[in-house]
């Protein structure tokens, strides 16, 4: 009889304690609004620089409450535009020397880790795939919750080393005798993602 009471008491303790164990919360998906989101680029060379835009193709951000936990976005590399409207430069950027847009029509970024920094700033680490080659990059981003229920994620200066993706055209590191025709290995991206449930 004593054994039955002890067993019953243990069973009640297990049931009661399991009631307090919260089920894992499923992150809420916010869909990137392509009409309000932007991706701009800057490439620098010894004698100047070029800048322009690339269209986003799709994207999602995952949130646990107001905390960014994951997400991804896809870039349509066939839409590379030069701000000065140079058709020759746009053609060259899409060619095999650079992004090979005919063969690699999209690039992608997948968030792997988000670490708090300060205030609304977080450090985002993820896998960036360009020309079928994937490398991990980390950059700061700010998260802003808007009055209309949308959320904006801004990364103003994402540095990408193009040589890690097989883009070696006029790289001083790859071709030391390139002289004043040298193009810097790193280019900059500015990413603005506006997303909604």
TrEMBL record:
Q: Which InterPro entries match?
A: Lipid/polyisoprenoid-bd_YceI, TTHA0802/YceI-like_sf
List the keywords (alphabetical): Signal
Nucleus among keywords: no
A Pfam family of this chain: YceI
**Position of the signal peptide:** 1-22
Sequence ranges assigned to domain Lipid/polyisoprenoid-binding YceI-like in this UniProt record? 29-196
**Under which name does UniProt file this protein?**
YceI family protein
